[in-house]
Write a structure and sequence with these properties.
The chain is built from seven helices and no strands. It is an all-alpha fold. The chain has a single domain, classed as Arp2/3 complex 21 kDa subunit ARPC3 (Orthogonal Bundle). It is elongated. The two termini are 17 Å apart. The N terminus is likely disordered.
């Protein structure tokens, strides 16, 4: 189950992350409390090359049109999503710095950095496309201030899902290694 060592094993983990991300985004949840950021971090840390970037893109491409039409009653894709998708690509890059670590403090720090960059990028996109906030420094600051409650949901969600995803992976990896040793 060690993804970076055995390339053929990337498919089950990647598929599980996409399914988790899709299901969690479509179920009722607090704003920004979803596993997409954490799944992106995990993909960056444990999957090689383009496969890591495919995880968040797959989750978003599948769920965005469904949520846009059924929940928000807006166009399936907008220019706003370019910023969000780029943020999740940055999440994968942040995950690259984790490598194979199982260090809880390093994963938690990466998760908080991830939440912060998502907050900054997504709310910058809101400000750029908004008529509610003046396109000035003060307007941008006001946009960020109004969004602070959403940052809390993002941070708690990223920490929760990173703990769950990285923790489950570590447990499964140790269980798999123990079975291999007992069968040897």
């Amino acid at each position: 189950m060690v993804l970076m060592e055995k390339e053929q094993n990337w498919r089950p983990a990647a598929l599980a992350l996409v399914v988790l991300g899709v299901v969690a985004r479509l179920l009722p949840h607090p704003p920004n409390f979803s596993p997409v950021g954490s799944a992106s971090l995990f993909a960056g840390a444990r999957l090689s090359g383009w496969k890591a970037y495919l995880i968040p893109l797959s989750i978003m491409v599948v769920t965005d049109p469904i949520l846009a039409v059924m929940k928000y009653h807006v166009a399936p894709y907008t220019s706003y999503q370019v910023f969000i998708y780029l943020s999740f690509m940055l999440s994968v890059a942040i995950g690259r710095f984790l490598g194979a670590t199982q260090s809880v403090p390093r994963i938690a720090l990466a998760s908080l950095i991830n939440s912060t960059q998502f907050f900054l990028i997504s709310n910058f996109a809101v400000w750029v496309g908004s008529t509610e906030f003046a396109h000035t420094g003060a307007g941008l600051a006001a946009c960020y201030v109004v969004a602070i409650p959403f940052f809390a949901y993002t941070a708690f969600g990223d920490l929760f899902f990173a703990g769950a995803i990285f923790g489950l992976y570590a447990w499964l990896s140790h269980t798999h290694k123990a079975r291999q040793l007992s069968n040897a």
